[in-house]
Automatic annotation (TrEMBL):
Protein known as: Adenosylmethionine-8-amino-7-oxononanoate aminotransferase
A GO molecular function held by the record: adenosylmethionine-8-amino-7-oxononanoate transaminase activity
Pathway participation: Cofactor biosynthesis; biotin biosynthesis; 7,8-diaminononanoate from 8-amino-7-oxononanoate (SAM route): step 1/1
Ranges annotated as spanning the membrane: none
Lineage, opening ranks: Bacteria, Bacillati, Actinomycetota, Actinomycetes, Kitasatosporales
Organism from which the protein derives: Streptomyces oceani
Amino acid sequence: MTPSALLDLDRRHVWHPYAPMPGLDEPLLVESAAGVRLTLAQPVRGHRELIDGMSSWWAAIHGYRHPVLDRAAADQLGRMSHVMFGGLTHEPGVRLAKRLVDMTPEGLEHVFLADSGSVSVEVAVKMCLQYWRSRGRHRKTRLLTWRGGYHGDTWHPMSVCDPEGGMHHLWSGTLPGQVFAPAPPSGFDAEPDAAYVSELRGLVRRHAEELAAVIVEPVVQGAGGMRFHSPAYLRVLREACDEHDVLLVLDEIATGFGRTGTLFAAGHADVTPDVLCVGKALTGGYLTMAATLCSTRVAEGISRGELPVLAHGPTFMANPLAAAVADASIGLLLEQDWAGEVRRLERGLSEGLEPARTVPGVRDVRVLGAIGVVQLDRPVDLVAASQAAIREGVWLRPFRDTVYTMPPYVTPDEDVARVSAAVCAAVAASVG
Ligand SMILES: *Cc1c(COP(=O)(O)O)cnc(C)c1O
């Protein structure tokens, strides 16, 4: 089919994320991708190749068509793409579970392999609610989170997304009502705010009787606004949860696998949650898969309860193809100096985004690990900003009031510089 025929059909029949039907902006037609470059079916603003500044939403940490991951997928394809996980098991699923147990914070021993990040959060919530139910604490069914978060688009995850970003007013009465703390004060390096800490503790204490769990994204709030906060607040939450019999769930779907400079963002605070969600970069961006890990206390609590099973089992649970690629992707990550590569990107982004600091209309420039964010004092002009980045030969997808990038770890220095220049150009196009 010709590019224009495809785009015409796309417009008529295909939903895109967070879009009306038909869509507002015409998507770019991608023909293939390799390394850190997307190849378009036809040139746009003089470019057929774009450097990917988004890692396909945090996922493609090793870039595209990595030979090791391609081979893992092809080898597994030669054995089986999928078998059901009820009553059957397989080496890719077992190996991946063991790897996740080994690399995540101490104490997380049991792994539920789910098929997307949102589902892994659903499973985490079900684990927590069922744990308390099994212990006879039937009132403990609510969740506490802080504003500015994002945990996915299915129903329970939506209930803990930022009320404004998650459009809770649209769903009032239908979404479960959760307990919200104010957003954590900004700044990775900022001293913890004493008033905020006592407010957080007070909320956990006051609601302890009805709280099953606290769920937050550690250190970096992603799709809720790309905000960074002090790891100290995670220690506060851990203590408050321990003190008041509440479980702690960390959602590391965006932050996992090295993105913030530690293997998991919980590592900045040396905190072990009771339940941990990972996804996005889990398969190196190849296939959809996520995982929910829990402690032995949670697993035993559930398994000795009135319904002594975790009643969840997606059709494609532990999909062997995805599991084999995930295992290879984690192997690839751990056998290289991933921390050095992330630090290299951190330096490149810090340097490259510096000029944006003095641009009128820019509120903040922040970099942590391989994440670079320029926040404006107004909403980004999505079309103008994306077009400006494309003119620089870079793919970015700004949202709300931020132009941001989280490039693949393999991005060479000269491409990091081009991505940074594109962020600055996108910013200029938005405020100009
Ligand atoms: C992306 C994301 C999710 C949802 O994952 P999906 O795979 O899109 O369902 C949940 N939590 C966080 C922190 C995320 O970044």
